[in-house]
Design brief:
The protein is mostly helical.
Length: 431
């Protein structure tokens, strides 16, 4: 398969040495014969990397699955009976390949960012106070997200292999790595232990101050490179930070403390949401590194503009996916512990009474009918719309609803980025 093509979206994706892009983006690590190897002067060797940052193998498996998937779906020649089953003829599999590739890139970026921090902690001359909060967050986050979400994406990779009807050897390989990813996810220790570690570390004041700085960092990147999804990510980070602050002070409908060790239904989802943010941030920073240093690598210099466009769109797609997860989790935590109003005296206190509306109708024609379409109205006979209770109110949560709406708007362009990346893959396969 010739991978040196120009897609209709304007990419130029060329065949590159397997480790060329990752050497630049990982900032000191490379792939050699399928293994993650630190370059000279970094770390204490692969044993330390494997011991300290679990989940890197799943990241490597995800990235290594992309090429076999593309080969298995390579456009067949004329007269081939499999022509109607090839990837170029269908958009849905292309979207799924983008998800696999983007998840692999984000996993690798997160895993190797954690590895670099842990490497620096090993150096005696470095002050460890500043690095320790970061290491305490990145370590469990890498383990949780890379192995948990990575195993799910390996399942996607295996299903894409099987759906093509070709490359049975690739299907067997994807199946084995899917099983291996599941084993890494379960064999590295209880996920609840990692979530507990992360939920404790992410409230460290030093880390939270650093996190606020990261939001400003993403805004600055967005001003220079809006296509990376950095703006989307920054808004999602603000929403997560607001939600964390809120649940640490708020109580549930019965007056119980929300953020507490004995309440994993609150702490664990926030830890999971943070993992999505960390992975996407590391991926965006690596694409920035690719832009800054890509031309120094002889295998990337000529193809850099096209490669950079493709990886930028992968970042945007991944940032949107992560922002969606953060928005969902935050909304569930902020609203989910408030009691829904019922059709009782307290719940109906905010409802309109039909006789009041009728009295106002002569002054404001059409008020009664319009109010019935958007507000809760109690009719003269006590009846009301058939639903569980009056609509929930947002008292005291205006800031959250504004941020949530802003996050939805920040998803603008994310699907276009996915389509551009998918078009590049379609052109690559057709070539």
């Amino acid at each position: 398969m010739d991978t040196s093509v120009a897609g209709k979206a304007g990419y130029t994706l060329r065949a590159l040495p397997g480790d060329a892009v990752r050497q630049v983006m990982w900032g000191g690590y490379m792939l050699r014969d399928g293994l993650i190897v630190p370059r000279d002067g970094v770390g204490r060797g692969t044993g330390f990397v494997s011991r300290s940052t679990r989940g890197l193998m799943t990241a490597a498996w995800l990235l290594s699955a992309v090429e076999p998937i593309l080969r298995s779906h390579h456009a067949p020649g004329p007269g081939d009976s499999k022509a109607d089953r090839g990837l170029p003829q269908r958009d849905d599999p292309l979207d799924r390949v983008i998800d696999v590739w983007a998840a692999g890139e984000a996993s690798a970026s997160l895993g190797l960012a954690a590895a670099r921090v842990l490497d620096e902690l090993e150096l005696p001359e470095r002050r460890k106070d500043d690095l320790a909060p970061l290491a305490n967050v990145l370590g469990p986050a890498c383990t949780l997200w890379n192995t948990g979400h990575g195993a799910n994406m390996m399942r996607e990779a295996a299903s894409l292999m099987g759906a093509s009807g070709t490359a049975e050897g690739g299907l067997r390989l994807a199946g084995r790595t899917w099983i291996d990813a599941e084993l890494e996810a379960t064999g590295e220790g209880s996920e609840s232990v990692e979530r507990r570690r992360l939920s404790a570390a992410m409230t460290d004041e030093g880390f939270l101050a650093q996190f606020a700085g990261w939001i400003r960092e993403m805004r600055e990147i967005a001003s220079r490179r809006p296509g990376t999804g950095a703006c989307t990510l920054a808004t999602a980070m603000e929403l997560w930070l607001w939600t964390l602050s809120h649940v640490r002070k708020a109580a549930d409908a019965d007056g119980g403390t929300l953020y507490h060790d004995s309440r994993p239904g609150v702490t664990f989802p926030l830890a999971d949401a943070l993992c999505w943010l960390l992975a996407s941030r590391c991926q965006i920073l690596d694409v920035n590194e690719l832009e800054a240093r890509g031309r120094e690598h002889p295998a990337l210099a000529e193809a850099l503009p096209g490669v950079l466009k493709f990886f930028t769109d992968l970042c945007h797609a991944q940032a949107a996916r992560g922002a969606g997860e953060v928005g969902r989790i935050s909304a569930e935590l902020v609203f989910g512990y408030r009691r829904h109003p019922a059709w009782d005296a307290e719940g109906c206190a905010s409802c309109y009474q039909a006789e009041d509306l009728e009295a106002l109708e002569e002054w404001i024609p059409g008020l009664a009918s319009s109010a019935r379409s958007y507000a809760e109205v109690i009719e003269a006979d006590g009846s009301h719309r058939p639903k569980a209770g009056p609509c929930a109110r947002f008292d005291g949560l205006d800031a959250f609803t504004r941020m949530r709406t802003r996050l939805d708007r920040c998803l603008t362009g994310a699907r276009l980025a996915r389509e551009r990346a998918a078009a590049a893959l379609r052109g690559m396969i057709a070539g």
